[in-house]
Amino acid sequence: MAFIYPKNEKLKSKKVIDALFTKGKSISQYPLRLVYVPIDENLSEEKFQFGVSVSKKYFKKAVDRNYFKRVLRECYRLNQNILKEKISQPHAFMFFYQTKDKLTYQEIHEKTIQLFEKFKENHK
Fold first, then answer.
1. What tens digit of pLDDT does each residue of 47-72 get?
2. Which of 69, 76, 87, 99 could anchor a disulfide with 31, C-beta 3.0 to 4.6 Å?
3. CATH code for the domain in which residue 79 is found
4. Is residue 4 part of a domain?
5. pLDDT at 82 (0 to 100)
6. For residue 41, is it within any domain?
7. Are 78 and 35 in contact (CB under 8 A)?
8. Are 114 and 29 in contact (CB under 8 A)?
9. What is the number of structural domains in the chain?
10. What range defines the domain where residue 51 resides?
11. H or E segment at 53?
12. Is residue 1 part of a domain?
């Protein structure tokens, strides 16, 4: 499997983002949260759409928010096969970093793997 995060997988559609927050289901593994929702093939031509978010409430400086968003995208890129192996229908995902603690890349990477495994178990 290629470890890529192409532009067409990025979550940008306002309709899909609204569906995530209204109908989406959530799984947490402190300090990360994954919100997901199955989407219509009509809304998106891609099988997966993925977005990341870091709260301005916890990180006032854009530099800090951007750092954690880069880390989250990299963790997704390296571990997306865990999510994709069980999914047959198109899904949209939003990945949140929800703490003011500044965890290291390694800690975030381990938590990401645990979160994706948890999703895989719950999504059978």
1. 789 999 999 999 999 999 999 999 99
2. 99
3. 3.30.230.10
4. no
5. 87
6. yes
7. no
8. yes
9. 1
10. 9-122
11. strand 48-54
12. no
